[in-house]
Amino acid sequence: MPTLTLKPGREKSLLRRHPWIFSGAVEHVDGVPEPGGTVDLLSFKGDFLARAACSPQSQIRARVWTFDPSESVDVDFFRRRISRAIHARSPLLLGEGPGVRSDAFRLIHAESDGLPGLIVDRYADTLVAQFLSAGAEFWREPITNILLELTGLTKIYERSDADVRELEGLPSRVGPLRGAIPHSPLAITEHNLKFLVNIETGHKTGFYLDQRLNRQRVRGLAEGQEVLDCFCYTGGFTVNALAGGAKSVLSLDSSADALSLCRENVALNTSFVTRHSSLEGDVFHILRKFRDEARSFDLVILDPPKFAPTAAQAEKAARGYKDINLLAFKLLRPGGILVTFSCSGGVDAPLFQKIVASAALDAGVEAQIMEHLSQAPDHPVALNFPEGAYLKGLVCYRI
Ligand code: SAH
Questions:
Q1: Residue nearest atom 21 in ligand 1 by C-alpha distance
Q2: Cis peptide leading into residue 185 (ω within 30°)
Q3: Is 184 in the pocket of ligand 1 (CB under 6 A)?
Q4: Do residues 389 and 210 touch, judged by C-beta distance below 8 A?
Q5: Residues 34-54 as b or e (16 or more Cβ within 10 Å = b)
Q6: What separation in angstroms does the CA of 322 have from each of 64, 126, 362?
């Protein structure tokens, strides 16, 4: 097996069980690793550190499969890891209460489930997979077979079209992997509400499953409220706010397709339609316009796209977050609630809290944090992989 020997001192992160090795940490390579093939990582002194997938084209040169020198990386290895991930999604861990039904979950959350580069989401009886690293790509066929074997399902659709594939030197690939092309959009149930999910062209694998519990939280906050759902996508928060008894919900998004599915999702859950309206446009502009018109709301939701994928873009992202949060505070009536999120890996929870605090200050509003929110438990975070905790949210009460 080819080996990568690390520079002196560069074994430290591996000893803490962080699964990535950057190209700059590699002293020399013995043998010719193929893209995604398995290599042993050795310390400068030659001690075994980990067994990993090699990404010859990526800055992240190797992603660890196992730290156990006696464990080989073969089909059985993937069967064990995938089985472990599926078992970890017991209803108890997922936070479903009695009588509550959901049939859409993340089954495999990449590094945090010991499977770097592999994302698998379940939408009713269809799986949607993303192979995002050279290692995951290398094992694509056996992984696909094992997923079907262990879930008893017959349909897997591939959405390997995320930008990160390019960094790994992999082309984008989308289409059915096994089974008939699913009828898209397909219907799922989340906390007894129905949603249509477009797995072929929707964002990520089609739906923001990471917000599942937070959507339920919004449902509990919405009764009798006038709600503004910013960056609504296909209406996850909108439908929940309506189901929670909102007086009205206005959904904003720049995508006409997302808004059209949002309206369908509202209609699917019936009887709320008359309390719903939607507006296509740039949230930054619309919020300014609403401020100038002195409009106000009781509950504002801000769930923008990733402004800063990495720490390098944090400063620019901070300006974006500050801007929308400031405007949202201005539109919020006293006694109103702001539910605000960031899914930027480059902005950590303390920084996000600082940004929201300074937005309130500049808006001339006094507010308090009632609750910290994060991603749903089917998006776990390995203790040794803090990068896995990307979604942070605050529920702020305007005094
Ligand atoms: N809250 C949603 C997920 C939001 S994803 C849910 O729970 O499902 C982010 C959304 O922001 C996308 O739908 C995208 O179309 C939209 N978007 C991105 N930039 C925007 C902008 N400047 N103005 C309005 N919408 C924007």
A1: 282
A2: yes
A3: no
A4: no
A5: ebbbbbbbbbeeeeebbbbbb
A6: 37, 39, 9
Look at the alpha carbons of 368, 371, 375, 381 in this order and tell me if their dihedral is positive or negative: positive
Could you list the active site residues? Answer: 343
Q: Which one, of 191, 207, 215, 202, lies nearest residue 393 by Cα?
A: 215
Q: Averaged over 33-55, what is the pLDDT?
A: 98
Pairing mode, strands 60-66 and 226-230:
unpaired
Token couple for 42: 């050795």
| 10 pLDDT more than 90 | yes
Structure tokens, 112: 């945090």
Q: Could you say which DSSP state residue 307 is in?
A: S
pLDDT in tens, 157-181: 999 999 999 999 999 999 999 998 7
List the one residue out of 35, 27, 29 whose CA is nearest residue 8: 27
> What confidence category does residue 309 fall into, taking pLDDT thresholds of 50, 70 and 90?
confident
Q: Which atom of ligand 1 is nearest to the CA of 234?
A: 8
How many whole angstroms separate alpha carbon 49 and alpha carbon 197? 42
CB 213 within 8 A of CB 190: no
Read out DSSP for 202-225?
SSTTSS-GGGHHHHHHHHHH-TT-
Report CA(305)–ligand 1 centroid distance (Å): 6
Which pTM was predicted?
A: 0.96
Q: What is the pLDDT of residues 327-337, one digit of tens each?
A: 999 999 999 99
Q: 330 or 313: which carries more pLDDT confidence?
A: 330
Q: What is the CA radius of gyration of the chain?
A: 22
Protein residue with least CA distance to atom 9, ligand 1: 305
Take atom 10 of ligand 1 and give the residue whose Cα is closest: 231
Other beta carbons within 10 Å of 252: 21
105 burial class (0-12, 13-18, 19+ CB within 10 angstroms)? buried
The C-alpha atoms of residue 348 and residue 388 are separated, in whole angstroms, by: 11
> Whole-angstrom Cα distance, residue 36 to residue 266?
43
